[in-house]
Amino acid sequence: MVLLSKKDLKISLEVFSVFQWALSVLVIVITVIAVNLYLVVFTPYWPITVLILTWLAFDWKTPERGGRRFTCVRKWCLWKQYCDYFPLKLLKTHDLSPSLNYIVACHPHGIMSHSWFGHFATEMSGFSKTFPGITPYILTVGAFFWVPFLREYVMSVGACSVSQSSMDFLLTRRGTGNMLMVVVGGLAECKYGLPGSTTLFLKSRTGFIRMALRHGVAVIPAYSFGETELYNQYIFTPGGFINRFQKWLQNMVHIYPCAFYGRGLTETSPGLLPYAQPVTTIVGKPLPLPKIENPSNKTVAKYHAIYVDALRQLFDQYKTKFGFSEAQELVVT
């Protein structure tokens, strides 16, 4: 019988914590569909599926009404192993007042946004100590809330829909001290999730600025140094069949199907787990915006440009501390 040392056991737990989160969506979706198909087609227990669908219909709007978080899930000891795997580090440049609400624009998306999840969907990187009195809401695409049980898991860590109605609710019906986390580049930015990349999909992403203007809340730039180092990608021949398919799908559904890869269950084996590279997230200075209920496109563009300048300043201030040269610039597309 081989006994693991404390160090080996910790490494194993860290790998498992990342593995379970990265694959949980796929496993839960397949399990829910397979079990309910079995109940309906092969057993007399189809009323269970009817009850599940009835509850889903009844509870459909919850992700747009603040979700249903459970602090005990956000404090799972498993998330401590998750944050230690990379490891993740959260730094702030300014204190935030619990008497105000904020929209935090997160960059870059990377492949799976591991740093944003670890910092703001769990308590294990020290969020509550770093920002006392502030409640984070990590906003994500509505598809995560379409599948029973998966939606409960996602909501339990404080996630909500990124829809306009969801943001309106959080900024007007949940009091103050709320921090809405928006990974602005979204899935369209995955194509730039390459080691050494500083390219962001941001020029056309103005919705978060419009929302901040409508409610008169400050926007905060945040940048995760190291997020794009967690995976590599296969780059296909420009103009080739696979490359043309990637661009076609991106134009159709705004999702870039990148062929990414990382490490396996062991450090030297290939797989789909992220590389164990340190990621440091810098939360910048709040950028106050005026309250304009129906801002024009020109007004939104004006404040979007001001925001991009603030983001560039944040990146330039810290880039040399995290491996980038003084000449490296933030590329906004």
From TrEMBL:
Alphabetical UniProt keywords: Acyltransferase, Endoplasmic reticulum, Lipid biosynthesis, Lipid metabolism, Membrane, Transferase, Transmembrane, Transmembrane helix
Membrane topology value: Multi-pass membrane protein
Top-level taxon of origin: Eukaryota
E.C. designation(s): 2.3.1.-
Single GO molecular function: retinol O-fatty-acyltransferase activity
Chief place where the protein resides: endoplasmic reticulum
Transmembrane segments: 21-39, 45-60, 130-147
GO biological process, one term: wax biosynthetic process
Signal peptide stretch: none
Localization: Endoplasmic reticulum membrane
Any single Pfam family the record assigns to this protein: DAGAT
GO cellular component, one term: endoplasmic reticulum membrane
UniProt key word Protein transport: no
Family label: Belongs to the diacylglycerol acyltransferase family.
Protein name: Acyltransferase
Organism: Capra hircus
Gene (name only): AWAT2
